[in-house]
Structures are given as C-alpha cells and as structure tokens.
Specification:
Order of helices and strands: EHEEEEHHEHEEHEHHHHHEEHEHHHEHEH
Helix content: 25-40%
Shape: globular
Strand order of the largest sheet: 1-2-6-9-10-12-13-14
Largest sheet: 8 strands, parallel, barrel
Radius of gyration: 21 Å
Number of strands: 14
Distance between the termini: 16 Å
Length: 447
C-alpha cells in the first residue's frame, strides 16, 4: 500500500541522517511542507535542536518577487530554518535517499495575515474577528490563495501536491494559551460560531434573499441558550456529520440554514476548483493534486468540507482524516464509496494518478468526455490519514489493522502524520506496521 509521511523542512535541514532514516521506515513518499501556518514543533532526533518555533505562517522557499509585486496580500518569508530555500534543500536530500517528494501547502489558515489585514477575516455573528481565518468568499483573499496554491505546490523536484485548508476555516483553532473550552460546543454550535458576517458575506446572503441582519439575529438567538446552560446540547454530541447539519436546520429553520449552505458551499467549491486549475496550469503533465478534505461540506478547518462528487471531478483525489475507531473511519470514507475504482494497492500495485489528458481537463468537469471521466475515476486517490504520534492521540501500534480496515472501505493509500514529530518508539511501530502491510516494494508509481 503506497504510503507517504508528512514532514517539515526543518526536520531534514541540518540533519544528514534524516532522509535515510525516513527511507528505512518503508514509505515511498514524503509530503513536505512548502507553505505552513505558525507552530511550535518538537524535533526529537535532530542533532542541532529539539524545538522549532515558526512564529507566523510563511512559505519555506523564496517566493517569486514578480508574482507578488505591488500586492497587499502576499506570503511571508521565514527566518527559523537556515538557508535561502529550506524546502528545496530538504527535497533534494529526500530525493537522493530514493523518496518521492510532494508539496504540502496550507492555504486559508494564516494568523499573521489576518492580524495585519483585519478587513479580510471571518467575522462571527457577534462581530468577533478570527485572524487565523481569511474569508474565502472575498475576491482579494481568493486571488491570494489561488496564486499561493500555484506557487507553493509547484516547487522544483516535487511530483505532486496536497492542499490543506482549501476551504472555510472557522472557530476551531489551536490558539496559544487557548481559553474557549469553558462551554463545550456541539458540531452545530461550532458551525454557527464559524459562519462569516463580513461585508462580502453579508452582501451574498442578501443576494440570496435574506438580509444579513436577519440571518445574524437568527444565529445569535440559536446560540444564546448554549451560553446560559453551558451544555453542548443533545443534537450531535457524537459529532455525526448528518446529525450536525440536521441540528443546524433545527436551530435556524431550513430556509435560513439553506441560505448559509448555498453561499458557503459555492465559495468553497469555486475556490477549490480555481486552486486546482491554477496548480495544473503551473505544473507539468502528470503532477498530482490532492485536497485534504472532509466529506461533510459544512465542516471547517484543515480538512475542508467538500462535496465528494464535485471534488473528485477536478482533483486527483483526497486525503481524509482516519484517526479514531472503525466507526469514525467509516463515516469519513463511506461518502466516497463507489466514486473510486477498486484500489490498485489491494492487488499489490500503487494507486496511480490520472492520465495527463484527463488532468488537463478535469478542472472543468462539465467539458470532460465520458472516456476522460472514466479514466479519472480509475485513477482517483483516496488516502487515509493516520496520526502516528502517540502523544498526539495517534495509535501507531494498531496501524496495520487500521490501514486494512481503511482499505476495505476503499482507501488506496496511507498518510502518516507526522514522521518528524514522532518518537523513536512510534517510528519503530510504524516500521513494523508497514512491514506487515507488505506492499511497500519502493517502486515508483507510473505517473
């Protein structure tokens, strides 16, 4: 089963043994961060440091001055990894060790951008800004994100990309010294606290026939009992995706909920299509484009909500969060059942990306021929993403069994989060699991 591990450039730069150590895990690919949000990361094996603090969202390569000249929204550079091009240096080392490199680009998640440009961010029904969440319905944000996707995805040496946060971001955020857990929030409440009422979104709601003030008032009314009781509410404690949306409709009424859904789904779908198209236009034929996704379109965050049929009409596939029990995996993978071909990995070969001709046309599904659509379906990638860091809730010891269950639900590839953060004992468990899976010949897929 083709397997890739996530990695930061600082896990490799300055550590001459890092690439070889990763290759010995039994993986075939590294998904290497090229644009990433602020973080504080452990580096348990690096010879020069143990903690890296990325103070703000940044690109980990030198951005093109011509692309960004004169633009108000532009990517930030970094100074916490040595060298002018940390991504490039890490990518070369990994390739020399026989590992295929794909980029990992985080898009609509940037706290510094929002802090410096407060007019562009999501504003909740109470008027509170979310600096970490640029509003994807705003034209200036969309232009920035689409160009960032193209530049951060198509780096020298990369043979594909995985786009994270390619959709709405909302309330949920691992913020510094976070203090918002005093009132537990159900999935429906999380959604209502994530709905944007910036000027652009307000105009969008009005165009759909509902004044923003009316919709805002309805959201506030729906949330007020929560602050009084301090309870999540009975509708969706189990985080069931269908239950979440049913609870939103019960709280707002189907008409108002439908207005929100129409506006937000449209913004997400058009961004996703535009980002994929921009990457394809910038890349050579055969460059694979995947989205980190959640099959519930109303979901926000790193795994952006998508419509399964729509996203697979223009992207080469999706990376889906599969950490948790069997029921949680089934809930994530089942909506994609029947939309992908039988995983090639089950027959001992890696799932391949779509053909070059299909790749050139898939961003406009309406114009694809039946033959191209069939070719794309056979090549669609469904990657199950497992956390393998025990301290972050992962279970590397059950990876082999969990991967087998994901494969039975249609997954054809694995993603491991995160090889740089994991302890040595966690990595040893990963090596054992991949050996048990037994389909890691190291051969490159034919794309």
């Amino acid at each position: 089963m083709r397997t890739a591990a996530f990695l930061y450039p600082w896990d490799v730069v300055g550590d001459p043994d890092a690439a070889g150590r990763l290759a010995r895990l039994g993986i075939q690919q590294v998904t290497l961060a090229s644009a990433y949000h602020s973080t504080r990361a452990l580096t348990p094996r690096h010879p020069r440091h143990r903690i890296v603090t990325a103070r703000h969202a940044a690109v980990l390569y030198p951005p093109d001055p011509a692309r960004w000249a004169g633009r108000e929204l532009r990517p930030y550079t970094q100074d916490w990894v040595s060298g002018p091009d940390p991504f490039g240096a890490a990518a070369r080392a990994l390739a020399d060790a026989g590992l295929e490199v794909h980029t990992w680009a985080v898009l609509a998640h940037n706290s510094r951008l929002g802090a410096e440009h407060p007019a562009i961010v999501v504003r909740n029904a109470y008027g509170d800004p979310y600096p970490w969440a640029p509003c994807i319905a705003r034209p200036e944000v969309r232009d920035y994100l689409v160009d960032l996707a193209a530049e951060a995805a198509v780096r020298p040496g990369a043979r594909g990309t995985e786009l994270e946060s390619c959709g709405w971001y909302g309330l949920a955020h691992l913020h510094a010294h976070d203090k918002i857990a005093g009132v537990p929030l159900s999935g429906a409440a999380q959604y209502l606290m994530s709905v944007c009422f910036c000027t652009v979104c307000a105009e969008g709601y009005a165009e759909l026939g509902v004044p923003a003030r009316e919709l805002r008032a309805a959201v506030v009314r729906a949330l007020e009992p929560l602050w009084a009781s301090g309870e999540a509410g009975p509708a969706d404690r189990d985080r069931d995706r269908e239950g979440e949306w049913a609870a939103v409709e019960a709280l707002l009424g189907t008409e108002l909920a439908g207005v929100l859904r129409t506006w937000r789904d449209r913004a997400a779908r058009t961004l996703q299509r535009a980002a994929v198209r921009a990457v394809r236009d910038a890349a050579a034929d055969g460059f694979r484009v995947l989205l980190h996704a959640d099959p519930a379109a109303h979901r926000c965050g790193a795994n952006a909500g998508v419509d399964p049929a729509d996203v697979l009409a223009h992207a080469d596939g999706v990376v889906l969060p599969c950490t948790g029990g069997a029921a949680a995996r089934a809930q994530v993978l089942a909506p994609f059942a029947g939309r992908t071909a039988e995983p090639a990995c089950a027959a001992g070969t890696a799932v391949v990306a779509r053909t070059a001709s299909a790749a050139r046309t898939a961003s406009a599904a309406e114009t694809a021929t039946a033959a191209e659509a069939a070719s794309a379906a056979e090549a669609t990638v469904l990657a199950a993403n497992f956390t393998v860091v025990s301290g972050m809730g992962g279970s590397p010891g059950t990876l082999a069994a969990d991967a087998a269950h994901a494969a039975s639900l249609g997954a054809g590839e694995l993603r491991l989060y995160h090889a740089g953060l994991a302890s040595e004992s966690d990595l040893a468990a990963v090596r054992d699991a991949l050996h048990k899976i037994g389909d890691n010949s190291g051969k490159r897929p034919p794309y």
